[in-house]
Design a protein that fits this description.
Elements: H1 2-13, H2 15-33, H3 39-57, H4 62-81, H5 88-115, H6 121-148, E1 153-155, H7 163-174, E2 182-184, H8 187-206, H9 217-223, H10 231-239, E3 253-255, H11 264-271, E4 278-280, H12 283-289, E5 305-308, H13 311-321, E6 325-329, E7 339-341, H14 346-357, E8 369-373, H15 378-381, E9 383-389, E10 392-400, E11 415-418, H16 423-438, E12 443-449, E13 452-457, H17 464-471, H18 476-489
Parallel strand pairs: 3-4
Antiparallel strand pairs: 1-2, 5-8, 6-7, 6-8, 9-10, 9-12, 10-11, 12-13
């Protein structure tokens, strides 16, 4: 089941690319195939391929998929049955169903684009597909009008009025080139041509927007509106050396995200403004939970785990355990430095332990490390990353290691898959919920392997964009809503002190 869902996810993520390739090939190959196949048949072949590819683009939800199928199949059946039964009614109905299906596909594509917060390759591909599909939709409409009211258009090419001519006219009109070799004569034809030209010019502006919006809470509260910044503006801001804010207390909220280890001097400084600025996660909580030691607060739900800086003791722990164990540096991230060890490789084991703890240093200056039971299921099943907000689950995904590795971290090459949270995983979240909230760890990512908690990430929990893509969700909005709610509960101080 997991393999099937993985395969579907890969195909699904490329649904716009498939459509774009189909449309591009229809334009590129047509001139070279005209002598081999009748033009009408060639046009219908390409239109059929485009419609089938477009069905794939509306497979985002089951409801949109079945609606698309109900509109596209009659169009295809009527179009090809016309070669057996020459009926004007089948032409007209095929055009009606074709136009309705493409309109449905366009709504699905534009809805997808509007939900995205970043301009990715997929978003750009979707926008291009939407623009090109618009040309095909109007071609169906023009052909239907000509069939219903013959003489609505004057076509220079030997008076022909097949669908190929209207595809050409539609795209010329959409781009407002207007060569004049096909002219709408009836009022209906002219009105439709004007409407298409207007849509062709306004739609690119409709979808031209900043990649992401970031809310300034102070500005929103003072003016009643949101102040937008683009990603580039934020990056530019963080790279500047000069003062950005006169005082930290000018902010309503501060979302701390940086890779371990913590800068403790920064934490000490921010601790002084905790009563004035909502900090996510709290400075105290990050100090308590920034290393891998935090899971020791929950001994009943974690695998066998030991921490030491003494090489002899670490060697004895591994020998007594008898099986494979995982060595983890306490302050690293992304799977960096995580290795599997066992007594089978005794020659390298001593060297590895001495290297990790820096045994050449005095005892006080050595680096403590964690050794944890190796859970074999990680090799095949991977681990589960669950994002918690105020102790509640807001999203989850499965991560599997790449071939030849056991680390599931995306930075280490792990793959992500959709996941439905199990009863056991919910139980683990309930066990740690109270402690997390008490420590001010409101937004965390936890990792679970084989029903056991192996890590709590509170400094830089990742996964929101990937979970959003897998589940077609926008869980970041829940985080922002939570921050706004917390900000509103902070007592208003008449005159904030500068910090």
């Amino acid at each position: 089941m997991e393999i099937a869902s993985s395969l579907f996810a890969r195909i699904y993520l490329g649904r716009f690319s498939l459509l774009l390739v189909s449309i591009t090939l229809s334009f590129a190959l047509r001139p070279f195939l005209e002598g081999l196949v009748r033009l009408n048949i060639l046009t219908d072949i390409f239109l059929s391929v485009i419609l089938l590819s477009a069905i794939h683009t509306v497979s985002e939800k089951r409801s949109t998929f079945f609606i698309g199928l109900a509109l596209a199949l009659p169009c295809l059946i009527l179009k090809w049955s016309d070669y057996l039964i020459d009926s004007p009614l089948s032409w007209n109905l095929a055009d009606v169903f074709g136009a309705l299906f493409i309109a449905h596909a366009l709504i699905s594509i534009w809805s997808f684009i509007d939900r995205q917060q970043e301009v990715t390759t997929e978003v750009i591909t979707a926008a291009v597909c939407g623009y090109l599909l618009l040309g095909f939709m109007w071609a169906f409409i023009y052909f239907f009008l000509e069939c219903a009211q013959p003489g609505s258009f004057q076509i220079a090419q030997h008076g022909a009025s097949d669908q190929n001519c209207f595809i050409y006219f539609s795209f010329v009109t959409l781009t407002t080139l207007g060569y004049g070799d096909t002219i709408p004569l009836s009022n209906a034809g002219r009105s439709l041509a004007i409407l298409e030209a207007v849509m062709g010019q306004t739609l690119p502006y409709r979808h031209h927007r900043p990649a992401r919006r970031c809310v300034s809470f102070s500005e929103a509260r003072k003016t009643g509106c949101l102040k937008p910044f683009t990603n580039k503006a934020i990056i530019r801001c963080t790279k500047q050396d000069h003062l950005v804010f006169e005082a930290i207390t000018e902010l309503d909220a501060l979302f701390l995200r940086s890779n371990p280890p913590l800068n403790y001097q920064t934490m000490e400084f921010l601790q002084t403004v905790n009563n004035h600025v909502f900090i996510l996660n709290s400075t105290t909580g990050q100090i308590l939970g920034n290393s891998k030691l935090y899971i020791l607060n929950f001994p009943e739900i974690i695998p066998e785990t030991h921490v030491s800086r003494d090489p002899s003791r670490l060697r004895k722990i591994i020998d007594d355990f008898g099986g494979a164990m995982v060595v983890k540096p306490l302050q690293r991230f992304g799977g960096e430095g995580v290795i599997k060890v066992s007594t089978r490789d005794r020659m390298n084991l001593n060297s590895l332990i001495h290297y990790y703890v820096r045994a050449y240093e005095s005892y006080a200056r050595r680096e403590p490390i964690m050794v944890q039971e190796y859970l074999k299921s990680v090799k095949q099943d991977g681990d589960i990353r669950i994002l918690l907000l105020n102790g509640e689950i807001i999203g989850a995904m499965r991560r599997k290691p790449k071939k030849g590795d056991f680390r599931t971290n995306v930075h280490a090459g792990g793959e992500v898959f959709a996941h439905r949270v199990t009863a056991r995983e919910r139980q683990i979240c309930q066990v740690i919920k109270e402690k997390l909230i008490a420590d001010g760890l409101y937004f965390v990512g936890i990792d679970i392997i084989a029903g056991k908690l192996v890590e709590v990430n509170c400094v830089s929990p990742g996964g929101i964009p990937r979970i959003n893509r897998l589940n077609n969700d926008r869980i970041e909005s829940k985080v922002i809503d939570f921050i706004e709610k917390k900000v509103s509960t902070i007592s208003q101080v008449p005159h904030r002190e500068l910090a």
